[in-house]
């Protein structure tokens, strides 16, 4: 059986049938877009676990400041209904309800927000509390990008989960372009040996697998403790002196205020034989920019790259 439909014409517009067809096709496309917005989505999180939602998430609770930044970068800021302490970027995140901090979550507050997705920091949140939330059948997505090159995909995955894939892809591509521009500008420059100080008592640093080491490499630096086994190794003053770093970095207070004092580099001035001290290459970077695995880490990278150029300009012929 076939249906013979009369042509649709308008007496004043003889070309109307073509426009009518375009209009019909547009309506069909819009219908498919509406259906896809309500279709189930499946992704893998940073533990390798499969996360499936019956429809893109509309009420998301972020349990880490870095996850909050990634969600906003993915275009899902208007779907975030709760965040943990120190979720202070972008500005809109400051106005969202707080559900505790990384290590002490307010479970009742989280439940009251009726989330259809929790974005969890794999090694930063209380696993006991996260498991309690999981037992209540709340979907959990673990977020812990390990390398700079993981961040664009992290943004895109959150865009898939929240139904904002186009915005997420645009944000991810912008990140890739910025990363590539920095790589081309700095990574081939003369290497500078770097000590990155995390804490003073005990003295702690980062090994070569940490994302901060990606930043150091991106800028043409060399992490002097890259080969240490732990991600955050303890080192001795004597070991640092033996490595003779040409530049030293540490995180300094930024937009997020901590109730614990951040480590400083002042104590190293008592060893003027260190090239970093002799040439005054003791640098601080906003902790929010260098320590959070989110889009702004490229702002921190830009700062580090410029500081390493300063160190290069101060290099003496005997520097090693």
Summarize the structure in words.
It is a single chain. With 320 residues, the protein is of the alpha/beta class. The chain has 2 domains: 41-172, 3-Layer(aba) Sandwich (Rossmann fold); 187-313, Nitrogenase molybdenum iron protein domain (Rossmann fold, 3-Layer(aba) Sandwich), CATH 3.40.50. Helices cover 38% and strands 14% of the residues. The chain contains 11 helices and 10 strands. It has helices at 16-37, 65-73, 107-112, 127-135, 151-162, 165-186, 211-218, 237-243, 275-278, 287-290, 297-313, and strands at 41-44, 50-53, 60-62, 80-83, 117-121, 140-143, 192-197, 221-223, 247-252, 282-286. Strands 4-3-5-6 form a 4-stranded parallel β-sheet, with helices on both faces. The chain has a 4-stranded parallel β-sheet with strand order 8-7-9-10. A two-stranded antiparallel ribbon has the order 1-2. Strand 1 (41-44) and strand 2 (50-53) form a beta hairpin. Helix 5 (151-162) runs antiparallel to helix 6 and helix 6 (165-186) runs parallel beside helix 11. The longest helix is centred in the N-terminal third of the chain and has 22 residues, at 16-37. It is elongated. 37% of the residues are buried. Residues 1-17, 27-37 and 255-261 have low confidence and may be disordered.
């Amino acid at each position: 059986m076939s249906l013979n439909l009369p042509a649709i014409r308008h007496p004043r517009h003889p070309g109307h049938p073509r426009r009518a067809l375009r209009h019909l096709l547009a309506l069909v496309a819009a219908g498919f877009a509406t259906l896809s917005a309500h279709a189930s989505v499946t992704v893998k999180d940073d533990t390798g676990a499969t996360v499936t939602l019956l429809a893109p998430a509309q009420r998301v609770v972020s349990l880490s400041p870095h996850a909050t930044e990634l969600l906003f970068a993915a275009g899902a800021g208007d779907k975030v209904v709760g965040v943990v302490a120190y979720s202070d970027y972008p500005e809109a995140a400051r106005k969202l309800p707080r559900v505790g901090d990384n290590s002490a979550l307010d479970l009742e507050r989280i439940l009251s927000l009726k989330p259809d997705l929790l974005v969890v920091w794999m090694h930063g949140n209380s696993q006991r509390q996260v498991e309690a939330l999981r037992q209540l059948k709340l979907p959990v997505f673990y977020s812990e990008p390990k390398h700079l090159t993981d961040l664009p995909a992290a943004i895109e995955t959150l865009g898939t989960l929240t139904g904002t894939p186009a915005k997420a892809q645009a944000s991810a591509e912008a990140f890739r372009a910025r990363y590539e521009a920095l790589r081309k500008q700095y990574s081939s420059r003369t290497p500078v040996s770097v000590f990155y100080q995390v804490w003073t008592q005990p003295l702690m640093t980062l090994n070569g697998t940490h994302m901060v080491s990606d930043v150091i490499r991106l800028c043409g630096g060399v992490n002097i403790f890259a080969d240490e086994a732990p991600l955050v190794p303890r080192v001795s003053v004597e070991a640092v002196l033996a490595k003779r770093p040409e530049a030293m970095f540490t995180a300094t207070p930024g937009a997020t205020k901590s109730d614990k004092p951040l480590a400083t580099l002042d104590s190293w001035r008592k060893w003027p034989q260190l090239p970093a001290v002799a040439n005054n290459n003791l640098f601080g970077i906003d902790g929010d920019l260098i320590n959070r695995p989110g889009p702004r880490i490229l702002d921190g990278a830009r700062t580090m790259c410029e500081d390493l150029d300063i160190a290069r300009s101060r290099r003496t012929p005997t520097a090693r």
